[in-house]
Here is the input.
Amino acid sequence: MKSITVYIILVACISLAACNKYDSFGGEASLTGYAFLKGAESEDVKTPMADQTIYLNTGNDTSTYVIATKTDKSGYFSFNFVCEDKAYIIFTRYLKDGTEYVGAKKIEGGEFSGDKVVRTTLEVSPSYLNGMYVQFTDTLGGLLPNLPVRIYRSKVAADVDSVKYAVYDTSTKTTGIIALYNINKGKYYFVGKDSIKGKALRVFDSVEVKDNEIARKTMQLK
Amino acid sequence: MKPLLFFAVLLYSSVGVAQQTSDIQFDRTGKITSSLPERFGKEDKVIFRMSDSKESFENYLKNYKDRLRQAISTLTTLKDDKQKMKLLEVVYDIKGSDIDLVIAELKTLVDAPVGNDVVYMPRFKEADKNYIGFTLGNTAVAGAEVVAPNANTAPMAVKPFGPDAQINFSVTKKDPFKKLVMGWLQSTKDSYGGAIDLGPVQQVVAAIEKTAAEVGAFAGKVRPDIARFTEESVSGDENALIKKYTPLFNEILQQTGKFQGQVDALNKKLITTVALHDKKNWMLKWLWYQRNQLPALNPLGFSESIGAAPDTSMLEGIRTRLQVRETFLKSNLDKLKPAQIDSVLNVIDADKKKINEVQKAVKKFAENSSLNSKAATSFSTVSTDLYNGILYVEDKSNIYYWMRHHNAAANYQLMNTLETDEFLETDKVVILAHNLTPNERASLNLSFAAITNDASLLTDQLLPVIATLGSAILKTGGPGMVTLKQKAAEADKGLRRLVASLEELQDNTRYLDYLLQQSNPPLDIEERTEKSMAYHSEVTNPVKKEKGPRKATYYLNTVVLNAQGGDSVKLDKVPTDTFSYRINKLYRLFPMAGIAWVPQRLASVSQDSTGKFSINEEAAVKFVVGLKVYLRKTDIRSPKFITARGRDGEPLIWSRTSLTLAFDIKKPLDNIYTGVGLDLWPGFCVNFGGMFNKYNFKSYKNGQVFKENKQYRGAFYMGVSTDLTLFAELSKFLGF
Here is the structure.
């Protein structure tokens, strides 16, 4: 009877030990990662995400965090004192040029290697609400980089190609693409012209941008 | 599951307390020579033994055989002494052939002293070899056993009877030889017949005295006449002589005949009076025991009483008369003539002499009476209590009685088998003094030696005492003569015969003399046990519980009681040692201090002023101070390991297990430790259980504290602890 009493007391004491909210941070393992930035498109090149804050939280919640660290110049970061049998989520979120960049990676318990280190990557991508993704090609479908393009909200202005009213006066990237995100909804008119071996080529087209999607279109220069 | 297993192992490994059997030894005087157990449990047992190489049944056997040989020698000499044999024949009808039968049996018994009794003497039995008795009293089952010296009794249970924790033990030695003699007296007393009556003997003596006086006077009167006739008859005138002496010799002859008849009758009566032939068997059965050259009717050396005390009734009258005469003499000294003064002085001297004689007689009677009484006591004292002891046993309420045994015969040194100096407050300590002599003492040595030797000395001393009971020796005498020649010759012859008869009568008076020295043996004397000589034990302190913790210091002295009134005096002895012991408290609560180790990492995340996060771990080891609450009150002075069993056989683990509440010394409320403490040994406690660490939990959102709360988190901890004092000293030593 007495032994049972003692045992109950012991069990009670031990069970109380489960109430530690920092119980995921008392381990001997470490979590290291490489954070990189990647554009919204698959063609985008990965670039190290330097000097950005990486957050760590338990579970799946990325709305709050318990601890944070910063990536180094090469995009590497590390969390120590984590437990190898716990589940974590690492994430980052920041605004740059009006665009939110986010990335999150779930680390499940058991992913740790023998030296109690888990190595992971964190892909950070811009988080766009809407936009347009327009690709310019020649008649044969070849991409046209550095193609001067003006974007108008007014069709009239676009018709006359009055640069004064152009929203954007830009050129296609090396990928032959013009991508604009988080922009006002509405119709956008594209005017692009160039001459190849004395032959004038021109494109006049439009894209309808909505609130919550990225409009995609390929425009052919003729 | 693991804690259960741990407890199971502890319980299984606990070994029960075995029943103890203690061995208590005594020497031949009854003194305890062994160490004594400091405690008796209810189920314990005790074995007694008199262990002394000098005490052996063989000693008694040897003495018995020596006595038989002595008897052979004495009886052989007696048989050759015709006078004594004549006396034995006249008085008891014992002849030489009877003596031969006794001698033959004596010789048989010298060779085979153990066996059944023979006709004329007793013999030791096999059972007589066991004569040391041990008893255990006031116990649930009384123990009693009689064993041989140097032999163990069977184990006797010491379980007390009733609520009393005190039990008694005693050692009694039964003298095998005295037992033999007492038994022989019981079995032979019927052969004694009735008691002898010395009244008729004394009547014969009186008659002889009277006749002798008359004969003496008569002889004295006629002897000159006979002598004168003898002288005159040589040359005198016969007719004249006849005329002159015939009437005289007729008278002498007549008177001589008369006296002769009286003497013959007296002699016949004497022989009849002294004949105690019904005592023959008795005498033969006690010849082996006699040490006198002339066997006595009462061989025991003492009688039931030594007769009436001297009459002192006349003393008062004599003293009064003496006083009157002395006063008269003083008052009239100048008026009286020298002759008158001498006359009064003579009377006064005579009175004083008389008083002195009576007083001497009274004193002598008292001495003889005392000697007789001592001899009787010595004879009947078959058993002697050698020790009356006291011990204490755990009582029904499970109170422990710790005995501290001290040897009064060895300057009160401790006699304990184990010298435990610490006891619990729930216990009772009994300080016992053993080997105390009765009344202290010096008197023991005197009385012990005196009484031990009394048996033989008093027997010898009583012989003259009995002799005083004898009456005066008759001495008479006188010549006689008759006739005128013939008558003178007849008168002379008659007178001579009368004288010869008187001489015979006188010779026969030795029977009377012998008989008057005899006394009836005290056939109904009862066996007794000498109780006044035993060593004893005493409880010297009030047996009660004392609140602990305390240190008791004490010493013991011997006190001797005066024989007169009981006033006590202290013996001048070598100063005794001073002893001490502790009364330990049983603790329910006891403070503790030690270190606690938390195997689990208790991390906290913090952010500095630059916004940099860091993870901090609580120190795994912390110094703690707290309180232990024992499941059962514990003796912190016990040296036993936790897996051992307590003195009641109960596992110690319950009194070594405590619920603990401890705090971090530096930040008491930040780290609270609760759990269980196991005192492996008192003062070395292993602690484990749950600890509660207070921490500040912050949840961030967008670089700001999103949620914050302070709360306790639990963890398992282990640690070791000791008492505060030791911990403080250790801390100082280690420079913490």
Notes: Chain A has a mean pLDDT of 85. Chain A touches chain B at residues 2-3, 6-7, 9-10, 12-23, 25-28, 55, 63-69, 80-81 (CB under 8 Å). The helical segments of chain A are 2-16, 155-160.
